Every structure is written in structure tokens, then in C-alpha cells.
Amino acid sequence: MYQANVNNGINYHINYAEKEIKVNEELFEWDIQPVSGNLYHLIRKGKSYRLEVVNVQQEEKKFILKINGRKMEVQLKDRYDLLLEKLGMAGIASAKINQVKAPMPGLILDIKVQEGAEVKKGDTIMILEAMKMENVLKSPGEGIVKAIKVKKGDSVEKNQVLIEF
Fold first, then answer.
1. Given CA atoms 89, 123, 113, 130 in this order, what sign does their dihedral have?
2. Cβ neighbours of residue 22 closer than 8 Å, sequence gap 6 or more
3. Are 32 and 39 contacting, i.e. CB atoms less than 8 angstroms apart?
4. Which of 57, 131, 133, 139 could bridge to 119 as Cys pair (CB 3.0-4.6 Å)?
């Protein structure tokens, strides 16, 4: 079970099993063939469509498509997202981060961000040497760096605050 929200408007309920897809409980029959790269040819109810996959953000389950040149943003929610939403827990995983702490004791080899910098989830923010290994610390979320609490060459303890957002 999925829910697809298109262009922040209409919601579609999607169920699929083996070779059958139902959208809003109606059988969805189609023929799709890859053309090249991210381009596809789609036939549905005797009509031909050109489908281009413009962008895929897998973690966010967000897709930007162009169908016959018309841009569509599709936000998917799977059964777990829907359950969390029903329980009032939607968005907890994407909560704003306030700080990054040292995951282990070590030595700060390099700092890849500056105060005031905007970081996205997964951006490299620091290199920490621990047990003679370099560990790349990445941002766990999005934010703007308010303060860097350490400097290159500092020794840090586990759970010591390194950066505040």
C-alpha cells in the first residue's frame, strides 16, 4: 500500500501485487518501455505519453517527472510512513538537528565547514582520527552551522559537542 501525492494536491492510493496495480481501487493497465536513459514511452487507455524521470530523491521518496512536458512532483508514502502519520509520529525522523557529537574519542584532523555554512544531510563536516583510522563525519540532517566547538588538532572525547546548528 502506497499513497502518492501529486503536485501537493491530489492523493492516490496505490496497491500492487505481483503483476497487478490498482490506483484508487481501479485496475491500472499500462505498457511502459524504456527509450533511453531516463526517458520512457507509456501507453495507457490507447493514449501515448512521453515520460521523463527528472529527479529521484530516494530517502525522501520524492520524484520529479515530466509527462508530455508537464512537470509533476510525486511524494510517496509507504505503509510505514502512513502508520507513523496515523500514530501522530510523522516527521520525527526528519527533525531538525541541533548539534553533532563525537561518536568516539579521537583527534580532529580537518574541519570541512565554517560557521554560517548551510549543510545538507550527508555533507562531510569533519574528519576525526580514531584508532589510527580516519573517520569522515557527515551531517545527519540539514541546518546552518552556528558554532564550531573544536579546532583542527584538538583531542575530543566521546559525545563531546563538535558543531552546533
1. positive
2. 14, 15, 16, 28
3. no
4. 139
Q: In the numeric block, which cell numbers belong to residue 65?
A: 517527472
Q: How many angstroms separate the CA atoms of 130 and 150, rounded?
A: 16
Structural contact between residues 108 and 153, judged by C-beta atoms closer than 8 angstroms: yes
Residues of the chain with pLDDT under 50: none
Q: How many Å separate Cα 129 from the centre of its chain?
A: 28
Q: Which residues of 125-163 are buried (b: 16+ CB within 10 A; e: fewer)?
A: bbbbeeeeeebebebebebebeebebeeeeebeeeeebb
Name residue, grid cell 544531510.
121
Q: Which residue has the cell 505519453?
A: 49
pTM above 0.85, yes or no: no
CA distance 108 to 130: 9
Q: Measured between alpha carbons, how far is 133 from 118 in angstroms, rounded to an integer? A: 27
